[in-house]
Amino acid sequence: MLVSMAAPRKINGDRRRRTSVGICIITIFCIGENSSLVHPTPVAHSSCCHNHRHAALTCGGVSSPFELMMSQDDETSSSPSAATTPSERSQRKAAQRARKERTQIQANSNKATSQHPDAVLKRHRLKEQQQSFVKNSRRKHNFAERANFLHQSEKINDEFDANLNAVRDNRLTNINIHPVENPYDQRTGDSNDGGSVHPLHSMAVAKLDRSSTTEDVVTAIKRAQNYHDIHDIREIAHFLLEEVDVSFAYGYRGSLFSRLAVASLHVNNHDIAERCITERRISHRSSMLPLESAAIVRGLLRCHYTKEAWEVLEDELSLPLEGWVDFHRSETFDDNEVHLEKESIRRQLEIRDRLVHRARSVGSIASRHFYEDEPTAAMNAIQKLKDMGSIVREAGLTAEDLGIPWDRLVKGAALCESKRRDGKWDINNEESGEDPSQWPCNIVYFVLDAMVAFPPENKDVTFEALCNALVRRTCFVTGAVGMDGCPEADRGEVAFIGRSNVGKSSLVNMLTNRKSLAFISKTPGKTQQFNYFAVNDKPDLARQIRYGDEVLGSKDRDSFYIVDLPGFGFAKVPQKQRQEWSDFMDEYLTTRETLRVIFHLVDARIGPTEEDAKIMHKVGAIIGSKQQRNHAKYVIILTKADKNVKSASSKNPGKVSESVRNKLCETMKANKVGYAPIVVTSAETRLGRDEVWRYLRLAAEQ
After folding, report:
1. Which stretches does the entry tag as region Disordered (predicted)?
2. What stretch of H or E contains 93?
3. In 10 A of CB 360, how many CB atoms?
4. Residue from 415, 414, 421 nearest 436 by CA
């Protein structure tokens, strides 16, 4: 008998059996009595055996030798030494499979828990979506939903307010404002000190009594405001008004009243808020902080109590007396009066803080009126804001210190102006209480006047909103080389004059927030005609000019022309053409009745040149030595101020040297135009754009 089997092989130093299943051919030669040869029988190796032991083979007609072989094989396989290695390996494989199954089960279960990374990422994205939704909702100012919420809150507070309305004492210090018959009264008496215990719903502060600290009261107010807990707000009000005296909270009981007033307004309980504000004014006026007063004003505005907000503003955030800055500057102190000097500094800081919060509060009131379609009330608030400008500048406050949301005010005014153009206030003016005849040509100009009165902000976001509101459409109309080529004088005009390469086209593009309205070239003298640009004309005017199509519609109320005049000096043109330009400009400045502003551009790096002096002399001869009412406004603009600083930016937009200023003033006086205002600008850093727009308004109001 010959047996051919798959022998084990050595893999990586370890003696292992072959993993592949081969074919084992066993050839059995059985010699019987007749010495006959039995045909060999091929048998396939069993693949279902885990330890690769050979299965039993059968051979027809021969049993004794094969049975003997199988019996020996069974004895060998049943021995302990042969079964040790396969059993350990099978157990090891089974353990690996069990670990994989447990890992998979744990992974599947973790996906449903909050600790899985996918779940954490999903919660993070959901939170961002919610924050974005809340932010967008606040920016949209859905006052209908707010009014509905306030209406529901009023229904909830009716029962409690009915009990409180019976008591009209402003002090309420020793009066029980919580009647015994109130079903919500769960307070219990305290036999130790005669006080009462005020139970709360809070887990952190379960009750308020005579032993409660300031931190307990603040925590309870914050929790009640966040959760709209009206019960806790009532109990806190009873505690502060009845149980404690003026000395509570180290004398800052008034700060707790301000916090409670804001929380009461948050749930629309105006009665408690009014009593807190009154008690704060009477007992704690000396310790009132402007920050707290501003918070109360915003809370009253949120509940649409505009009249009460103005009362708090004028009483607690009033303007300082005239000349307060000079008074404090003139004070001198001896060495023994250091405390008086510190007191003066404290008063100055207090007044500055009051000015900051008053400006912010007035801005909030104006913004609220703009977004509630009440432009008249909003413009009254803007006027008060404008009146503060000189005082704010005297106090030395900057735009960063004030933090007035000018971009929001501009967008609110633009929204009202858009509704005005749509005819919202053309009818039913008596019902709305609005009189558009008293408004400016564009409500945004009212906000612009207040912006100019305050320290410059120089923010791109604000100016972009301003340009989008004041320059809605622009179009090149024509290029005139004589008075016959000028368009019809049916609106105001502003003219930009200056020598070549002074930056006229760049300034026009900067003011209109357009990149290529006026052609900009590095070669001087490219502008060789009077270029007319229409601002806020009728829609599709460009199609009418280019193709001759008849376009319906009319120009807006604040439409005007921007005229870019040819430059003098470096322009490479014949002397005859220069003389034609000069004659045309003389006739234009003399006879054009709709001309409202003449902007004379001078390079801030070198000052006025000989050509600039000629222009000043010509303007002075036409307008006169004094600014006449029936003539155009003459304004000097110093351009390219950013070139005078090393690294120009929004914080360092540009400057003009003292020598250039002196040279400019002397030239202006020599040519009888010393009355003209001077504006420093830069097309790169956008310096002076608000002040220039202040004069552009004169043309828009024509």
Report:
1. 71-120
2. helix 80-110
3. 20
4. 421
Tokens of 506: 């760049």
Looking at residue 233, what is its pLDDT? 93
Read off the pLDDT band of 174 (50, 70, 90): very low
Closest CA to 274 of 303, 231, 239: 303
- 482: tokens are 């004589």
Q: Which residues contact 178 (CB under 8 A, 6 or more apart)?
A: 163, 185, 187, 234, 238, 242
Query: Minimal CA–CA distance to 368: which of 309, 419, 427, 311?
Result: 309
> Where do the structural domains in the chain lie, given as residue ranges?
2-82, 186-318, 335-467, 472-700
DSSP secondary structure string for all residues of 413-459: HHHHHHHHHTTTTSS-HHHHT--GGGS-SSTHHHHHHHHHHSPP---
The pTM assigned to this predicted structure is: 0.68
Q: Which helix (H) or strand (E) holds 494?
A: strand 492-498
The three-class DSSP label of residue 188 is strand
**What is d(CA 618, CA 98) in angstroms, rounded to the nearest whole number?**
100
H or E segment to which residue 562 belongs: strand 560-564
Q: Which residues contact 162 (CB under 8 A, 6 or more apart)?
A: none
pLDDT digits 0-9 by tens, 58-75: 444 444 444 444 444 444
> Amino acid identity of 402?
L
Q: What is the DSSP letter of 563?
A: E
Do the beta carbons of residue 418 and residue 468 sit within 8 Å?
no
Q: Which pLDDT score is estimated for 40?
A: 44
CA 189 to chain CA mean position, Å: 51
665 burial (CB, 10 Å; 0-12 / 13-18 / 19+) is middle
Residue 215 burial (10 A CB sphere; 0-12, 13-18, 19+): exposed
∠ CA 178-180-185, nearest 5°, is 70
Residue labelled with tokens 């022998």: 7
- Domain formed by 472-700, architecture: 3-Layer(aba) Sandwich (3.40)
Cα–Cα distance, 691 to 702 (Å, whole number) = 19
Query: How far is residue 127 from each of residues 123, 132, 135, measured CA to CA in Å?
Result: 6, 8, 12
Q: Is the pLDDT of residue 292 over 60?
A: yes
